[in-house]
Amino acid sequence: MYTNMQLGISCAICIASKILSKEEGYTEKYINMLKMGCTKKSVDLLKMCDVDLENPDTYRKTASFFNNKIEELKKLL
Hints:
This protein is mostly helical. 70% of the residues lie in helices and 0% in strands.
């Protein structure tokens, strides 16, 4: 089971990655999800912007993101 912090970090990384990669239409999709407020469960709202916390791939992508950052840091040191 994941902690709330792990879930939040995974969501943030997924969302930020898509925004920073300038995925077409994603920023609008994310803003529309935010506008929904508390009208649905968080897990359902996040699916609206392609973040599926019920899919193990979400966590694999997060782990891969961190591994890449660690490798970048090693190169700098």
